[in-house]
Every structure is written in C-alpha cells, then in structure tokens.
Fold:
Amino acid sequence: MEITYDTANSAEDLHQILALQQSNLRGNINKNEAATQGFVSLTHTYDLLKQMSHPYPHIVARHDGQVIAYALIMLREMAPWIPELEDLFTHISESTYRGKCPDDASYFVMGQICVHKAFRGMGVVQKMYQTMAERMHAHFDYVITDISAMNPRSLKAHEKVGFETLAEYQTETGDPWVIVIKDLKNEIDF
Structure:
C-alpha cells in the first residue's frame, strides 16, 4: 500500500481535508470510537483552511490520489481567526520551555492532525510529522499543539514522536487539555 506525503496544493485537497475532518469530528462519532480511535474537536471552513495554508501549506498523506491524512499548519498570527484556541495561545505565552517562553522564539501551531481510520497504526502520524519538520525547521524553532486529555490515542501518538508537555489547562466548560511542544531545530527526527 503506497502512501505519499506532500502538501495540500489544490481546492480539491482542502475539500478532502474537510470531509475527513467531518468524519472524525467528536460529535459525529460514537463515544467508544472517540475513546479508542481518537477524534478531532474543531471544524474549519474552506475559506479558513485556505487562509491558514499561506505561506505554509498543510501537510497531507495520499493513497491512490486521495487525502487519507492531514496536519494543519497555523501561524500564531492566525489566533484571532479561531476563538476556540484563545486558551491555547494564552497558556503558550505563560509557559516556559527549556528556560524560555515560546513566545520569545519562533513557533507555529499544528492546528489539527487526522488519519483516516483505514490507515491508522501504519506510522502515518510519524511520517506526517517528518514531512512537516523537513518543510518547517528552517523557518521555526518549535511546533506546538494542544490535545484533549480525553483523547489518549492522540496523546500517545504525540509522545511517541517526541513531543513534550508544555502545559495543561481546562476550558471554561472543564474539559482538560494538554499543550505539547517539539523542538524543530535540534530534534527534527520524528
């Protein structure tokens, strides 16, 4: 089974990302599947995905020409576009990693990662992050993301590729989240 890794480079790629997102949205899958297979929490519009993809396009994995996984790249300047991520950016600015605040370095946020259920357990997450690191390490010190603490599959996948916990927080509704960080300059191997 051949899987290739590249960037989203067409309107069709963005539409396929949105379709994969909808099929893995926490509210669109049953609780057992969410607990064992993971889930995504946010939805994006086509226009937002398109805006987010400049100047750095999203990372995708393809099989037979179809997007079977994606990792969204989001610059911190885009924070106001997604109000649900306000807590993430606030906690990043209040955190310390290796003696300094990430705000004093260059970083981007991996805005969401998702793998089609038929391709899970095949190392796709690792290869997605390798592709991302190869494309982004010359421009940024760190990649940061947050993960629902109720998504153990995603927490484990990020730990496996070398992300470290930066901070933990709860939303206003009491949902626990973990912010993780990966050094792109010194540890680009995933």
Summary: The chain has a mean pLDDT of 92. Strands lie at 4-7, 59-63, 66-75, 107-115, 142-148, 164-170, 176-183. DSSP finds six helices and seven strands in the chain.
